């Protein structure tokens, strides 16, 4: 009787352990559909209506040239040799993203950024700007009032600025004029691309799709792609993909990873990181260089001597720390954090310690430096 009770308790503990660690996500959160993506658009244009904060045209001749071209297209001829001193105009670059399946007449947001030496784009209006793709075809036309998130003021040689004034955004500022040709489902297949390459996850997604009757045959082509065979009918493909994206897939145990940003000193680790017992000694080596100027003057003013300035340099070398500290084995993230905090190391020092731990085999994780 006691043996059976122990068996039941052991089974319950295993089930509870699995329920605490395993979880499921929808396929739509783990993958994207191949070919369904945004496309980058870019354009060059003019912003007018600035309150004296535009380009200094003597230093940005392309702004004057653009104004002349625009006026010429509007039927206005500027006499040759005219030196226009414009302060209310700025040359800008306009960028946007053309979403998949965008249709004619649909509006998209655009970002406007100063190209010259304009002080601010606040209060300006972007005049009609063609937005081109990588194939040099015009896909949208942008125009509208710019919303700048920054603010600034200056007087008497002093200035105050909050956020960026040389860039802004126009919500719905571009109208789609040309549609992109889509090959969605044209070969009776749909490819699902995983956000992160993982052979185990790719196979789980394929098995989950095949486990639902009538959803087509899915095959994991590699660690990044799952291919689903579909019918030629476009409406059936849309319904099928909508159903597939809502299927739940259990998430396998992820790889232990530590990511280090060498520029900012940030250290991020996931929950699978563990440590083995090791000893760590850290020390700081600091070098201080001080330079002062000594002035040497002759004691006799009429003796013909000269005043000489001689530099005096002092170098101070200091080394601190170096005592060994024991780092206990840690089986979960909380213990890892406590063990590393006990070292009292700064983020910069922690990066070197983690690299050394991995080389010594004490850090059971992949180390990625970005």
List the helices and strands and how they pair.
Elements: H1 2-21, E1 24-26, H2 27-30, E2 31-33, E3 39-48, H3 61-73, E4 90-98, E5 107-114, E6 125-132, E7 138-145, E8 151-155, E9 158-162, E10 167-176, E11 189-194, H4 199-210, E12 218-220, E13 225-229, H5 234-245, E14 248-250, E15 257-261, E16 266-269, E17 274-275, E18 278-296, E19 308-327, H6 333-341, H7 347-360, E20 363-364, E21 366-369
Quick take:
The chain has helices at 2-21, 27-30, 61-73, 199-210, 234-245, 333-341, 347-360, and strands spanning 24-26, 31-33, 39-48, 90-98, 107-114, 125-132, 138-145, 151-155, 158-162, 167-176, 189-194, 218-220, 225-229, 248-250, 257-261, 266-269, 274-275, 278-296, 308-327, 363-364, 366-369. With 370 residues, the protein is an alpha+beta fold. The protein has 3 domains: 39-152 and 160-176, no CATH class; 183-250, Gyrase A, domain 2 (2-Layer Sandwich), CATH 3.30.1360; 257-293 and 312-369, no CATH class.
Description:
With 370 residues, the chain is an alpha+beta fold. The protein has 3 domains: 39-152 and 160-176, no CATH class; 183-250, Gyrase A, domain 2, CATH 3.30.1360; 257-293 and 312-369, no CATH class. Helices cover 23% and strands 38% of the residues. The chain is built from 7 helices and 21 strands. The protein has helices at residues 2-21, 27-30, 61-73, 199-210, 234-245, 333-341, 347-360; strands at residues 24-26, 31-33, 39-48, 90-98, 107-114, 125-132, 138-145, 151-155, 158-162, 167-176, 189-194, 218-220, 225-229, 248-250, 257-261, 266-269, 274-275, 278-296, 308-327, 363-364, 366-369. It has a 6-stranded antiparallel barrel. Strand 6 (125-132) and strand 7 (138-145) form a beta hairpin. The longest helix has 20 residues, at 2-21. It is flat and about 110 Å long. Residues 1-21 have low confidence and may be disordered.
């Amino acid at each position: 009787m006691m043996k059976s009770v122990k068996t039941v308790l052991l089974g319950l503990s295993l089930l509870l352990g699995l329920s605490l660690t395993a979880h499921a996500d929808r396929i739509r959160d783990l993958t994207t559909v191949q070919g369904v993506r945004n496309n980058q658009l870019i354009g060059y244009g003019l912003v007018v209506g600035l309150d004296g904060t535009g380009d200094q045209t003597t230093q940005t001749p392309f702004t004057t040239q653009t104004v002349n071209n625009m006026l010429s297209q509007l039927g206005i001829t500027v006499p040759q040799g005219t030196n226009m001193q414009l302060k209310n105009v700025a040359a800008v670059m306009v960028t946007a993203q053309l979403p998949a399946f965008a249709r004619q007449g649909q509006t998209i947001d655009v970002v406007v950024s100063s190209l010259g030496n304009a002080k601010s784009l606040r209060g300006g209006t972007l005049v009609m700007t063609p937005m081109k793709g990588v194939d040099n075809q015009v896909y949208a036309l942008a125009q509208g009032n710019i919303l700048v998130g920054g603010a600034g003021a200056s007087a008497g040689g002093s200035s105050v600025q909050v956020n960026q004034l040389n860039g802004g955004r126009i919500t719905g500022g571009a109208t789609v004029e040309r549609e992109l040709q889509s090959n969605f489902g044209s070969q009776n297949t749909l490819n699902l691309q995983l956000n992160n390459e993982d052979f185990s996850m790719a196979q789980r997604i394929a098995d989950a799709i095949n486990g639902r009757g009538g959803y087509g045959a899915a095959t994991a082509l590699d660690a990044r792609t799952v291919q689903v065979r579909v019918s030629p009918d476009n409406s059936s493909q849309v319904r099928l993909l909508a159903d597939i994206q809502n299927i739940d897939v259990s998430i396998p145990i992820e790889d232990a990873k530590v990511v280090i940003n060498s520029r900012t000193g940030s250290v991020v680790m996931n929950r699978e990181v563990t440590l083995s017992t090791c000893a760590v000694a850290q020390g700081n080596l600091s070098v201080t260089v001080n330079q002062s100027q000594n002035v040497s003057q002759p004691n006799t003013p009429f003796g013909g001597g000269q005043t000489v300035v001689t530099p005096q340099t002092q170098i101070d070398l200091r080394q601190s720390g170096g005592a060994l500290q024991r780092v206990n084995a840690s089986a979960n993230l909380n213990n890892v954090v406590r063990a590393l905090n006990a070292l009292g190391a700064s983020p910069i020092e922690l990066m070197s310690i983690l690299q050394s731990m991995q080389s010594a085999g004490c850090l059971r994780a992949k180390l990625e430096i970005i």
